[in-house]
Write a structure and sequence with these properties.
This protein is mainly alpha-helical. It folds into 2 domains: 132 residues, no CATH class; 106 residues, no CATH class. Strand 2 and strand 3 form a beta hairpin. Helix 5 crosses helix 6. The two termini are 50 Å apart.
Amino acid sequence: MKLSIEQANKLLSQVSAGVIVVADDTLADKEADLNLVLADITEAAAKETQPLLEAELKDKYEASFVGRYLGALRSAAQRVFNIPRKDMDEMNLEQVLAKCKSVVDSRYTQSDTERQTIWERTVQDYEDQIEEMKTNYEQQLNEERAKYTERDIAARCISIVEKMPRKGGDLQEQADLLRYKMQKVYEVRYNEDTKQLEFYKDGQQAVNEKDEPVNDEDFARSWAERTGILVKDTRHISPADVLAGQEQANTVPLPNPNAENGMNAIEAWTDS
């Protein structure tokens, strides 16, 4: 498939704001951050596919839920009412219940106490089976939600790291290490409203020395300073040269770290 410049610009405008295609390399931004554009495109694609995937999973699990419920009902009818299983194999939900009712009606000669005991046992069996299937169904949905949450946490870490005045290095690797460090210290949650990460310990939101919730950007900067990946002296460097992820030729070299600072950097990458 071949696209014109106009078509490419139209496509990019829908997935990444502020990005246009130009005809000449001399007109292109030399410091264009392709990782940022890729992140925007990935986020836009995820927003489009997530509702479709959730709808597909809903239909799939609901069909499985009904099928398992009917199977559990047949088993209970066989166990409680002694109805042969082969008699119910082709029955739907309503037919199985009607069959159970006919058995109950035939037992009117039983005493009230006997009938009450049978009904209580039957109802309890149904409730137990339904509760088990509900638990399994919710567990499967929670696993799917956890995948999306993990994706959002990873995207947020990339967004934080790429805004830092880094010396260079692989953006994805540094973001992954930051995420690993966060999740090793806290239970990390993604807030859909603020688009930020929140940290919890023992079910309570973590706070700093000022009794304020720990901020994800503050956590990331503290970690990055310990690892030594930040450009510390930017007085003689233009803002464009200190953009996240850019390693410029005129970067002012930093003094060699002493032994103590070197050990702190190593610990920040590897310790708990």
